[in-house]
Amino acid sequence: xxxxxxxxxxxxxxxxxxxxxxxxxxxxxxxxxxxxxxxxxxxxxxxxxxxxxxxxxxxxxxxxxxxxxxxxxxxxxxxxxxxxxxxxxxxxxxxxxxxxxxxxxxxxxxxxxxxxxxxxxxxxxxxxxxxxxxxxxxxxxxxxxxxxxxxxxxxxxxxxxxxxxxxxxxxxxxxxxxxxxxxxxxxxxxxxxxxxxxxxxxxxxxxxxxxxxxxxxxxxxxxxxxxxxxxxxxxxxxxxxxxxxxxxxxxxxxxxxxxxxxx
Length: 263
Prior knowledge:
The chain is α+β, with helices and mostly antiparallel strands. It is built from 8 helices and 8 strands. It has helices at residues 2-21, 96-101, 106-123, 127-132, 134-149, 168-207, 209-232, 244-262; strands at residues 22-25, 29-35, 38-43, 46-49, 55-62, 66-76, 82-93, 154-165. Strands 3-2-5 form a 3-stranded antiparallel beta sheet. A 3-stranded antiparallel beta sheet has the order 6-7-8. Strands 1-4 form a two-stranded antiparallel ribbon. Strand 6 and strand 7 (82-93) form a beta hairpin. Helix 7 packs antiparallel against helix 8. It is rod-shaped.
Protein backbone atom coordinates (compact mmCIF):
# COMPACT_ATOMS: atom_id res chain seq x y z
CA UNK A 1 0.00 0.00 0.00
CA UNK A 2 2.82 2.39 0.88
CA UNK A 3 4.58 1.58 -2.37
CA UNK A 4 1.42 2.32 -4.34
CA UNK A 5 1.03 5.69 -2.63
CA UNK A 6 4.69 6.49 -3.26
CA UNK A 7 4.44 5.61 -6.94
CA UNK A 8 1.30 7.71 -7.26
CA UNK A 9 3.02 10.67 -5.62
CA UNK A 10 6.02 10.34 -7.93
CA UNK A 11 3.78 10.30 -10.98
CA UNK A 12 1.89 13.37 -9.78
CA UNK A 13 5.11 15.26 -9.07
CA UNK A 14 6.50 14.24 -12.46
CA UNK A 15 3.50 15.53 -14.37
CA UNK A 16 3.49 18.69 -12.27
CA UNK A 17 7.15 19.37 -13.11
CA UNK A 18 6.51 18.69 -16.79
CA UNK A 19 3.56 21.06 -16.69
CA UNK A 20 5.61 23.77 -14.98
CA UNK A 21 8.49 23.36 -17.45
CA UNK A 22 6.35 24.11 -20.53
CA UNK A 23 5.69 27.76 -21.39
CA UNK A 24 3.88 29.02 -24.47
CA UNK A 25 4.97 32.46 -25.70
CA UNK A 26 2.46 34.16 -27.97
CA UNK A 27 3.30 35.83 -31.27
CA UNK A 28 4.75 39.35 -30.83
CA UNK A 29 5.85 38.48 -27.29
CA UNK A 30 9.16 37.80 -25.59
CA UNK A 31 9.97 36.67 -22.06
CA UNK A 32 13.01 36.75 -19.81
CA UNK A 33 14.04 33.64 -17.87
CA UNK A 34 16.11 33.96 -14.72
CA UNK A 35 17.81 31.11 -12.80
CA UNK A 36 18.24 31.79 -9.11
CA UNK A 37 17.78 35.51 -9.81
CA UNK A 38 20.32 35.77 -12.64
CA UNK A 39 19.52 36.25 -16.31
CA UNK A 40 19.42 32.97 -18.24
CA UNK A 41 17.85 33.57 -21.65
CA UNK A 42 15.07 35.20 -23.68
CA UNK A 43 12.13 33.06 -24.73
CA UNK A 44 10.82 33.49 -28.27
CA UNK A 45 7.26 32.91 -29.55
CA UNK A 46 6.22 29.24 -29.48
CA UNK A 47 6.63 26.37 -27.00
CA UNK A 48 9.58 26.75 -24.61
CA UNK A 49 10.95 24.55 -21.82
CA UNK A 50 12.52 25.72 -18.56
CA UNK A 51 13.77 23.90 -15.49
CA UNK A 52 11.06 24.00 -12.82
CA UNK A 53 12.03 25.14 -9.36
CA UNK A 54 15.24 26.60 -10.82
CA UNK A 55 14.10 28.81 -13.67
CA UNK A 56 11.51 31.58 -13.48
CA UNK A 57 9.67 33.75 -16.01
CA UNK A 58 10.72 37.12 -14.61
CA UNK A 59 9.31 39.35 -17.34
CA UNK A 60 7.04 38.96 -20.38
CA UNK A 61 6.05 41.77 -22.70
CA UNK A 62 4.45 42.30 -26.10
CA UNK A 63 6.33 43.80 -29.04
CA UNK A 64 3.35 45.45 -30.76
CA UNK A 65 3.19 49.18 -31.39
CA UNK A 66 1.63 51.24 -28.60
CA UNK A 67 0.42 54.78 -28.02
CA UNK A 68 1.44 57.17 -25.27
CA UNK A 69 -0.67 60.31 -24.93
CA UNK A 70 1.15 63.21 -23.29
CA UNK A 71 -1.24 65.62 -21.51
CA UNK A 72 -0.90 69.38 -22.17
CA UNK A 73 2.41 70.74 -20.88
CA UNK A 74 3.16 74.36 -20.06
CA UNK A 75 6.04 75.57 -22.23
CA UNK A 76 7.77 78.95 -22.47
CA UNK A 77 8.67 79.94 -26.03
CA UNK A 78 11.79 81.83 -27.07
CA UNK A 79 9.84 85.11 -27.08
CA UNK A 80 8.68 84.47 -23.47
CA UNK A 81 5.10 83.41 -24.24
CA UNK A 82 3.55 80.74 -22.04
CA UNK A 83 1.66 78.13 -24.06
CA UNK A 84 0.37 74.61 -23.57
CA UNK A 85 1.44 71.80 -25.89
CA UNK A 86 0.19 68.23 -25.96
CA UNK A 87 1.65 65.40 -27.99
CA UNK A 88 1.14 61.75 -28.81
CA UNK A 89 3.89 59.21 -29.52
CA UNK A 90 3.85 55.75 -31.05
CA UNK A 91 6.46 53.34 -29.77
CA UNK A 92 7.34 49.64 -29.65
CA UNK A 93 9.68 47.32 -27.76
CA UNK A 94 12.36 45.54 -29.75
CA UNK A 95 14.57 44.24 -26.91
CA UNK A 96 12.91 42.98 -23.71
CA UNK A 97 16.30 42.45 -22.05
CA UNK A 98 17.09 46.18 -22.15
CA UNK A 99 13.55 47.11 -21.12
CA UNK A 100 13.81 44.87 -18.04
CA UNK A 101 17.37 45.61 -16.97
CA UNK A 102 18.23 49.10 -18.30
CA UNK A 103 15.22 51.17 -17.26
CA UNK A 104 13.33 51.17 -13.97
CA UNK A 105 9.82 52.27 -15.02
CA UNK A 106 9.51 52.31 -18.80
CA UNK A 107 6.20 54.21 -19.13
CA UNK A 108 7.12 56.86 -16.57
CA UNK A 109 10.63 57.29 -18.00
CA UNK A 110 9.30 57.55 -21.55
CA UNK A 111 6.67 60.16 -20.58
CA UNK A 112 9.20 62.27 -18.65
CA UNK A 113 11.67 62.10 -21.55
CA UNK A 114 9.03 63.31 -24.03
CA UNK A 115 8.00 66.18 -21.74
CA UNK A 116 11.60 67.29 -21.24
CA UNK A 117 12.46 67.23 -24.95
CA UNK A 118 9.17 68.94 -25.84
CA UNK A 119 9.92 71.84 -23.49
CA UNK A 120 13.50 72.08 -24.75
CA UNK A 121 12.52 72.08 -28.43
CA UNK A 122 9.60 74.52 -28.14
CA UNK A 123 11.68 76.73 -25.84
CA UNK A 124 14.11 77.39 -28.71
CA UNK A 125 11.36 78.61 -31.04
CA UNK A 126 9.23 81.73 -31.18
CA UNK A 127 5.46 81.34 -31.07
CA UNK A 128 4.91 81.79 -34.81
CA UNK A 129 7.62 79.22 -35.54
CA UNK A 130 5.82 76.60 -33.44
CA UNK A 131 2.91 76.78 -35.89
CA UNK A 132 4.91 76.89 -39.11
CA UNK A 133 7.54 74.32 -38.09
CA UNK A 134 5.34 71.63 -36.57
CA UNK A 135 6.41 68.91 -39.01
CA UNK A 136 10.05 69.78 -38.49
CA UNK A 137 9.57 69.65 -34.71
CA UNK A 138 7.96 66.21 -34.97
CA UNK A 139 10.82 64.89 -37.09
CA UNK A 140 13.53 66.21 -34.78
CA UNK A 141 11.74 64.87 -31.71
CA UNK A 142 11.66 61.39 -33.24
CA UNK A 143 15.43 61.47 -33.86
CA UNK A 144 16.23 62.81 -30.39
CA UNK A 145 13.90 60.39 -28.61
CA UNK A 146 15.15 57.40 -30.59
CA UNK A 147 18.75 58.20 -29.66
CA UNK A 148 17.83 57.74 -25.98
CA UNK A 149 15.09 55.10 -26.08
CA UNK A 150 17.15 52.72 -28.24
CA UNK A 151 19.32 52.18 -25.15
CA UNK A 152 16.17 51.02 -23.35
CA UNK A 153 15.17 48.59 -26.08
CA UNK A 154 12.40 50.89 -27.32
CA UNK A 155 11.86 52.30 -30.81
CA UNK A 156 9.86 55.52 -31.29
CA UNK A 157 8.00 55.30 -34.61
CA UNK A 158 5.99 58.53 -34.62
CA UNK A 159 5.72 61.78 -32.69
CA UNK A 160 2.77 64.09 -33.34
CA UNK A 161 2.14 67.46 -31.69
CA UNK A 162 -1.63 67.50 -31.44
CA UNK A 163 -2.42 71.00 -30.26
CA UNK A 164 -0.76 74.27 -29.30
CA UNK A 165 -2.91 76.25 -26.88
CA UNK A 166 -2.23 79.95 -26.31
CA UNK A 167 -3.89 82.13 -23.62
CA UNK A 168 -7.26 83.58 -24.62
CA UNK A 169 -6.08 87.21 -24.44
CA UNK A 170 -3.06 86.45 -26.59
CA UNK A 171 -5.24 84.54 -29.03
CA UNK A 172 -7.48 87.60 -29.45
CA UNK A 173 -4.43 89.81 -29.94
CA UNK A 174 -3.04 87.48 -32.62
CA UNK A 175 -6.41 87.42 -34.35
CA UNK A 176 -6.51 91.23 -34.39
CA UNK A 177 -3.01 91.32 -35.85
CA UNK A 178 -4.04 88.91 -38.60
CA UNK A 179 -7.14 90.97 -39.37
CA UNK A 180 -5.04 94.15 -39.49
CA UNK A 181 -2.57 92.48 -41.83
CA UNK A 182 -5.45 91.33 -44.08
CA UNK A 183 -6.88 94.85 -44.20
CA UNK A 184 -3.45 96.25 -45.03
CA UNK A 185 -3.03 93.79 -47.90
CA UNK A 186 -6.51 94.63 -49.20
CA UNK A 187 -5.75 98.37 -49.02
CA UNK A 188 -2.50 97.92 -50.93
CA UNK A 189 -4.30 95.91 -53.59
CA UNK A 190 -6.95 98.64 -53.90
CA UNK A 191 -4.25 101.31 -54.21
CA UNK A 192 -2.48 99.31 -56.92
CA UNK A 193 -5.77 98.85 -58.79
CA UNK A 194 -6.60 102.56 -58.55
CA UNK A 195 -3.12 103.55 -59.68
CA UNK A 196 -3.38 101.27 -62.69
CA UNK A 197 -6.84 102.65 -63.55
CA UNK A 198 -5.63 106.25 -63.29
CA UNK A 199 -2.69 105.51 -65.57
CA UNK A 200 -4.99 103.92 -68.14
CA UNK A 201 -7.44 106.82 -67.87
CA UNK A 202 -4.69 109.42 -68.34
CA UNK A 203 -3.53 107.56 -71.39
CA UNK A 204 -7.06 107.61 -72.84
CA UNK A 205 -7.48 111.33 -72.06
CA UNK A 206 -4.20 112.09 -73.73
CA UNK A 207 -5.18 110.17 -76.85
CA UNK A 208 -8.88 111.08 -76.91
CA UNK A 209 -9.95 113.92 -74.53
CA UNK A 210 -13.69 113.63 -75.29
CA UNK A 211 -13.81 109.90 -74.54
CA UNK A 212 -11.76 110.47 -71.40
CA UNK A 213 -14.19 113.09 -70.09
CA UNK A 214 -17.13 110.73 -70.65
CA UNK A 215 -15.35 108.03 -68.65
CA UNK A 216 -14.65 110.46 -65.81
CA UNK A 217 -18.30 111.55 -65.66
CA UNK A 218 -19.39 107.91 -65.50
CA UNK A 219 -16.90 107.12 -62.75
CA UNK A 220 -18.01 110.15 -60.73
CA UNK A 221 -21.67 109.18 -60.97
CA UNK A 222 -20.96 105.61 -59.92
CA UNK A 223 -18.84 106.75 -56.97
CA UNK A 224 -21.60 109.18 -55.96
CA UNK A 225 -24.15 106.35 -55.89
CA UNK A 226 -21.84 104.08 -53.89
CA UNK A 227 -21.20 106.75 -51.26
CA UNK A 228 -24.91 107.49 -50.89
CA UNK A 229 -25.67 103.80 -50.50
CA UNK A 230 -23.07 103.40 -47.70
CA UNK A 231 -24.24 106.52 -45.89
CA UNK A 232 -27.88 105.45 -46.03
CA UNK A 233 -27.08 102.29 -44.04
CA UNK A 234 -26.10 104.33 -40.98
CA UNK A 235 -28.88 105.15 -38.46
CA UNK A 236 -27.10 108.07 -36.83
CA UNK A 237 -25.72 109.91 -39.83
CA UNK A 238 -27.00 113.22 -41.13
CA UNK A 239 -27.06 113.04 -44.89
CA UNK A 240 -26.38 115.97 -47.17
CA UNK A 241 -27.41 115.24 -50.75
CA UNK A 242 -25.79 117.06 -53.61
CA UNK A 243 -27.21 117.35 -57.07
CA UNK A 244 -25.19 114.97 -59.25
CA UNK A 245 -26.11 117.08 -62.29
CA UNK A 246 -24.37 120.11 -60.79
CA UNK A 247 -21.33 118.03 -59.89
CA UNK A 248 -21.22 116.50 -63.36
CA UNK A 249 -21.47 119.92 -65.05
CA UNK A 250 -18.71 121.30 -62.83
CA UNK A 251 -16.48 118.39 -63.69
CA UNK A 252 -17.29 118.74 -67.38
CA UNK A 253 -16.32 122.41 -67.32
CA UNK A 254 -13.09 121.52 -65.58
CA UNK A 255 -12.32 118.84 -68.14
CA UNK A 256 -13.10 121.19 -71.02
CA UNK A 257 -10.68 123.75 -69.61
CA UNK A 258 -8.00 121.03 -69.31
CA UNK A 259 -8.64 119.89 -72.85
CA UNK A 260 -8.38 123.43 -74.19
CA UNK A 261 -5.19 123.84 -72.20
CA UNK A 262 -3.77 120.69 -73.74
CA UNK A 263 -4.65 121.95 -77.21
